[in-house]
Amino acid sequence: MSTPRERAREQTMRDILRLGREHLAAVGPAQLSLRAIARDLGIVSSAIYRYVASRDELLTLLIVDAYDELGDAVDEAIARAGAEPREQFFAAGRAVRRWALTEPARYALVFGTPVPGYEAPGERTTEPGTRVIVALLAILERAARAGVLEPRPYEVDGALAPDLAVIREEYALDLSDAALVAATVVWTGLFGAVSFEVFGQYGDGTIRAAEALFDAQLDVLAQAAGLPRR
Question: What stretch(es) of the chain map to CATH 1.10.10?
Answer without folding.
Answer: 1-53
